[in-house]
Design a protein that fits this description.
Blueprint lengths: L7 H12 L49 H9 L15 E10 L24 E6 L2 E2 L13 E2 L2 H8 L4 E3 L9 H14 L3 E3 L1 E2 L2 H5 L2 E6 L2 E9 L14 E2 L5 H14 L2 E7 L10 H12 L4 E5 L7 E4 L2 E4 L4 E3 L9 E10 L2 E12 L5 E3 L4 H11 L20 H9 L2
Helix pairs in contact: 1-7
Length: 412
């Protein structure tokens, strides 16, 4: 496993950027889709300056073999010279693609593939991660809440075919049809080779981290949790459910364990206030804690709009990636895209964002210009306040009061 240096000064710089009210970031290139080619656009973000030399578990062999006196005599008498090839270092570069909320209750029933037009294709990455905002099951009864979502079992196969490797289920819709339907969702995704993150048959399953090996000696861990937890959605030792971020010590301890076992740790978090294009204080505070405990990147969702991406000193927080596959939306809730993060081993080299807009089927379609693309560029780059529409619902705080229980039941 590669070394994981942790510098206090660098982390302090990152946290200062995360806590900035304006969410300022370093300049970012918002990548338009190519006019004809389907190849992924090149990333324009530069490598981190003054990066330390990489240290791997293997030791490079010398460029030439040592020569003895006898060997030298034979070499001089020979008309040919044997050339010892230089030892090449293994390629440790890899790419992660991430999208926001995925809801397929309408598209799957209509036989529509909502992933078909995405550029770059999710399957082109070494790892692709999304938030699955629905139940995948035919069992169960609807929960007592305003919005409940589910898709037929074939949705799991379509998600896998799109190239998704990790599906976060730590959200406020994973239990929309009860514990049996949640278990079905986990089982169907896992049976199709997709990691079901942040939920499970017990709390042990829901809170555990998952590890993917992307290159020889390069391991990437994922931790999922939700700050939006309707009543009875949190997993227990005996009841299926999701990983609650309000069990903060448990989540942070899990991040630390993941950091000890992997070279890169990605925290996938459901949080924030719906329709708010700037992150709230609780998002920034929790992002700071996740990074301080060993996360390298935090990928967020729930607001149904895009929020800024902050990148500093090799650490990244994408506060919200919006609606990725959803019902048709023509306004700001239909602005979306693909976040691309490029790595060399455990070093984050940079990132780019590929703008998309939801079409009439709620499927993301690449977009290269126009007022909506300009808005995407503004928000992702940190100029979020001037695009902020009125919020709808806030992430509820856990409580046992009757008023809080009523509010949590109605949370969408």
């Amino acid at each position: 496993m590669l070394s994981r240096p942790r510098h206090a000064a660098a982390l302090t710089s990152v946290c200062a950027a995360l806590l900035a009210v304006a969410c300022s970031t370093s300049p970012v290139r918002v990548v338009p889709p190519p006019p004809t080619s389907t190849e992924a656009p090149a990333v324009a973000q530069p490598a981190v300056a003054d990066a330390e030399p990489r240290v791997t578990e293997s030791t490079a062999a010398p460029l030439t073999a040592p020569v003895t006196s006898a060997a030298a005599s034979r070499s001089a008498a020979s008309s040919t010279t044997t050339v010892i090839p230089a030892t090449t270092q293994p390629d440790l570069t890899w790419t992660l693609l991430a999208g926001g909320d995925v809801l397929m209750d309408r598209s799957e029933a209509a036989g529509v593939d909502p992933f078909a037009g995405i550029q770059p294709a999710l399957g082109s990455a070494d790892i692709a991660v999304v938030n699955v905002e629905m139940v995948i099951s035919e069992r169960g009864e609807p929960a007592d809440k305003q919005y409940v979502f589910r898709a037929p079992p074939s949705a799991a196969e379509r998600i896998a075919a799109a190239g998704v490797d990790v599906a976060n289920l730590a959200n406020n819709h994973a239990m929309d049809y009860g514990p049996e339907a949640l278990v079905d969702t986990v089982d169907l995704l896992e049976a199709n080779g997709v990691i079901a993150l942040g939920a499970g048959a017990t709390s042990g399953d829901a809170y555990r981290h998952r590890v993917i090996k992307v290159r020889p000696g390069v391991r990437v861990a994922f931790v999922g949790a939700s700050m939006v937890v309707p009543l009875s959605f949190a997993a227990t030792q005996t009841r299926p459910g999701i990983a609650s971020a309000y069990q903060r010590d448990r989540v942070l301890a899990n991040v630390r364990v993941a950091a000890s076992e992997a070279d890169v740790v990605i925290a996938v978090i459901h949080w924030g206030i719906e329709r708010m294009t700037c992150p709230e204080g609780r998002q920034r505070d929790f992002a700071f804690e996740l990074l301080r405990n060993g996360a390298d990147a935090v990928i967020g969702h729930h607001p149904h709009v895009l929020q800024p991406v902050v990148f500093d000193d090799g650490k990244l927080v994408a506060y919200s990636l919006g609606n990725f596959v959803w019902h048709y939306r023509s306004g700001i809730t239909g602005d979306t895209g693909v976040l691309q993060i490029d790595f060399d081993g455990d070093e984050m080299l940079g990132w780019s964002f590929h703008p998309h807009l939801l079409d009439l089927n709620g499927a993301p379609v690449p977009a290269s210009e126009g007022a909506r693309v300009d808005r995407i560029n503004d928000i992702i780059s940190g100029d979020c306040a001037r695009h902020q529409p009125p919020p709808t619902t806030a992430a509820p705080q856990p409580s046992t009061s009757a008023a809080a229980r009523s509010a949590m039941r109605s949370a969408s």
